[in-house]
Design goal:
Layout lengths: L4 H10 L13 H4 L4 E2 L1 H7 L2 H13 L5 H17 L2 E8 L7 E2 L2 E2 L2 E4 L5 E4 L4 H5 E2 L19 E5 L5 E6 L2 E12 L8 H21 L8 E15 H5 L2 H6 L24 H16 L4 E6 L5 E6 L2 E2 H21 L2 E4 L12 E10 L12 H20 L1 H6 L22 E2 L2 H12 L38 E3 L4 E7 L5 H27 L4 H16 L11 H9 L8 H6 L4 H8 L6 H56 L6 H31 L6 H27 L12 H5 L2
Parallel strand pairs: 2-10, 17-18
Antiparallel strand pairs: 1-9, 2-3, 2-4, 5-6, 7-8, 8-10, 9-10, 11-13, 11-14, 11-15, 11-16, 12-13, 16-19, 18-19
Helix pairs in contact: 7-15, 10-11, 12-15, 12-16, 14-16, 15-16, 20-21, 20-22, 21-22
Bound molecules: adenosine-5'-diphosphate and magnesium ion.
């Protein structure tokens, strides 16, 4: 039976929905962390002194003693082998955006005393600490010359080792950083760790000013809400565009989209729930605190949210979560789509990056306090975030770039590309009060807005949930954390958090320096803080926007306020090498200039490759699937129209003729549009040598609109050609299971 849209529906109707045997149910608390070589396991299995030294390294940085590494590696290996592991791998995050691994068996030949050899299970400290994958095929943006193609991976002890299982056995995963032999970062974990270190150092300066001598470190805490689509695998397999590019380059609007809003928070279907339950169990076993699951706005769209963790672990865990979603979907005969915009005209998927700062004693520094001095400190950190977002908006925007996300940002479903901050009315009036800041502090009961003396008056309690209702802001304060909502669903959260931590580190540095200088000059802390905050809040108030970010007027208003609006990825990436953007990363050594320029090039190359793949898909699907069917239909309809005309003999065209002409218009339109796209694509392919930015701009300006032009005709044809012939599963089938 050949494929047609209608056949697909017949098959679906005739066959039962796939049934997957449920896994044995276990309580989350029992299952949690089963496959993790966690602190608790290490405490049990390591000699006390070694454990203490390792704990020290994990908490405050530094490196392990070589002897200790051997003991730790031995304990890890025993633990993994007891659980059935046969292989180990360093697991890292190259600039491809995916994770990478290269498995080695726990197997080393050992010369025996009689001159023979035996195989033993070996895993030494050296093997733990350093791996050497052949790195020549990972993007390096020119950092690695081909004659020195090697890179090496090194264990990140702050992220625990874990076991992953598939039908063919278990492998021990060692979370690692990935460096070139010259020590440059080729990955996303290294700069993330550096950014965390930078932010910690600067935040501690502020804490010390406020008399906190106990905290040893300040960490960024992150909870990443993950949106995704599930489509039936049988249809997915027939959509080469979804399989290869993650998004459909053709597809007419379905009869029913999201307009009824009946999917959002709707009852979860049993088939999807079975999938979600398995995803969660796999996450819990890996110590990933999955907590919330629900239907999202678009049909077939869902969301999963874990509880927040330290940013480094949350990043690793989000990479694993995406992998678990994809592989579990296969078992359930679904395909999980993580692309930011799999379906035109239907909401896309994002990733809300909830972010806060927490000191080593467990205090959330973005928690408004109940005493005047707590408030002064809270307001100082708040000012730092406002300054970071205002001054370094382009750096933050760079944390969200990608060809996929361009279809989503600013498309009335996700925040615009203008990075502004939502604070909510109460908090905004508090900072306005600080700006007004006359003497004569008031307490909470009498505080009525208007005036706020830092360190003396208390803030009114902030209603937490009200602040979350503005979904149109890219960067919203939601009670005790900021929610960065511009990250795309398929993207690593590392770049967004690297930018955020680096930008906040710069702002904290500026503020700490100013306060320290004032104190040196003999000014009292309260008055120095009052002055500094009043000035900062005044300077950065323009980045605060509590209104509707989707509204047309906001674009004009934001321009008036001087906020950058980098609407597409290429325009944003082009700014990466601006001096003031580079400074955000250079200032505290988060990235070197060479690393930045390499990243800029990799991002642009990646953008170009994505658009070229989509172009090739548009051409091949358009020419080899849609056109033949449309031409066949045109021929049949032509004959019908001719018959009708000869029967009617009338002067005015019969409806059949009108239909035929319209059909022909779209068929010839599609042919012409495909030719045009093809020609342009060839021309751009030949541009190879001319700078990467120019090629990216050309892909954006020349290919994207031409693909859209093909689509207009193809999607119109979809609505005209007999369903029995249409060669692609339609949105109706993909979106409603
Ligand atoms: P909201 O309703 O504001 O979206 P939720 O409680 O549903 O808040 O949390 C959304 C995400 O934010 C979750 O991943 C949660 O763990 C995370 N989160 C909550 N508090 C913090 C915090 N202090 N820092 C970072 N993330 C947090
Ligand atoms: Mg949220």
């Amino acid at each position: 039976m050949s494929y047609s849209a209608r056949n697909a529906v017949r098959v679906a109707v005739a066959t039962e929905k796939p049934q997957v045997a449920p896994l044995p149910r276990q309580l989350p608390s029992e299952l949690f962390g089963r496959d993790v070589f966690s602190m608790n396991v290490m405490r049990d299995r390591l000699p006390q002194a070694i454990f203490s030294r390792l704990e020290q390294v994990i908490k405050t940085g530094g490196s392990l003693l070589e002897g200790d590494a051997d003991v730790i590696a031995g304990a890890m290996k025993d633990w993994a082998i007891e659980r059935g592991a046969t292989h180990y791998t360093h697991w890292f995050q190259p600039m491809t955006g995916a994770t990478a691994e290269k498995h080695d068996a726990f197997l080393t030949p050992l010369l025996t005393s009689d001159g023979g050899s035996a195989m033993i299970n070996e895993f030494s400290g050296k093997m733990l600490i350093k791996g050497e994958p052949d790195a020549s095929s990972f993007p390096s943006g020119g950092i690695r010359a081909t004659f020195e193609a090697r890179g090496y991976t090194a264990w990140d002890p702050t992220s625990p080792v874990f076991l992953l299982e598939n039908q063919n056995g278990k492998t021990m995963y060692v979370p690692s950083i990935f460096l070139s032999y010259t020590g440059e970062s080729l990955d996303r974990k290294t700069p993330l760790l550096r950014s965390l270190e930078a932010m910690s150092q600067q935040a501690l300066r502020i804490l010390r000013l406020f008399g906190n001598t106990g905290a040893r470190r300040v960490n960024a805490m992150v909870g990443a809400e993950q949106e995704y689509f599930l489509v039936d695998r049988r249809y997915f397999k027939l959509r080469t565009d979804l399989r290869l590019a993650g998004r459909s380059v053709f597809g007419a609007q379905p009869a029913k989209g999201q307009e009824l809003e009946d999917h959002y928070f709707g009852a979860i279907s049993p088939r999807v729930l079975a999938f979600m339950a398995e995803v969660e169990e796999r996450m819990w076993a890996l110590g990933i605190p999955a907590r919330t699951r629900h239907n999202e706005v678009a049909p077939a769209q869902f969301e999963l949210a874990p509880m927040f963790e330290s940013a480094n672990i949350a990043t690793d865990h989000n990479m694993l979560t995406m992998e678990i979603l994809r592989t579990t979907a296969e078992r359930h005969e679904f395909a999980c789509l993580l692309h930011e915009k799999p379906f035109a005209g239907i909401n896309g998927s994002g990733k809300h990056n909830n972010w806060s700062m927490c000191d080593s004693e467990g205090n959330n520094l973005l928690n408004p306090g109940s005493t005047p001095s707590d408030n002064a400190q809270f307001l100082t950190f708040l000012a730092a975030v406002l300054r970071a977002v205002h001054e370094h908006a382009i750096a933050l925007r760079l944390g969200t770039v990608g060809a996929g996300n361009d279809h989503r940002l600013g498309a009335n479903e996700a925040p615009p590309a203008i990075i502004s901050v939502f604070l909510g009315e109460q908090l905004t009036s508090v900072i306005e009060g600080v700006i007004a800041g006359k003497k004569g502090g008031k307490d909470a009961s009498s505080w009525g807005g208007g005036v706020m003396e830092v360190g003396v008056s208390t803030m009114p309690p902030l209603p937490r949930d009200i602040s979350d209702r503005n979904r149109t802001s890219p960067f919203a304060f939601t009670g005790n954390k900021f929610e960065f909502r511009a990250v795309g669903a398929s993207q690593s959260i590392a770049p967004a958090n690297i930018a955020l931590n680096a930008a906040v580190a710069c702002a904290l540095d500026d503020i700490a320096t100013e306060l320290e200088n004032a104190l040196k000059k003999g000014q009292a802390l309260n008055s120095a803080v009052q002055e500094t905050l009043a000035r900062l809040f005044k300077a950065h108030l323009p980045v605060v926007f509590n209104g509707n970010g989707y509204a047309e007027e906001w674009q004009a208003e934001a321009a008036k306020r001087g906020l950058p609006n980098l609407k597409d990825s290429v325009s944003a990436i082009a700014r990466y090498s601006d001096k003031e953007v580079m400074d955000v990363f250079l200032r505290h050594g988060v990235l070197s200039q060479r690393e930045i320029l390499a990243r800029q090039e990799i991002l642009l190359e990646n953008y170009i490759k994505n658009i070229h793949v989509e172009t090739k898909l548009t051409c091949s699907i358009g020419r080899s699937l849609i056109l033949p069917v449309a031409l066949g239909w045109l021929k049949d309809m032509g004959e019908t129209a001719k018959t009708v005309q000869s029967l009617a003999q009338s002067a005015s065209p019969a409806p059949e003729e009108t239909y035929f002409m319209r059909l022909r218009g779209h068929v010839t339109g599609l042919m012409a549009a495909l030719d045009d796209l093809d020609a342009k694509h060839e021309q751009l392919d030949a541009m190879e040598g001319s700078g990467v930015l120019r090629r990216a701009e050309a892909a954006r300006d020349e290919l994207l609109p031409r693909m859209a032009a093909c689509r207009v005709h193809a999607d119109a044809l979809e609505g005209m050609v007999d369903d029995d012939r249409w060669p692609l599963p339609k949105y109706n089938e993909l979106l409603w299971h």
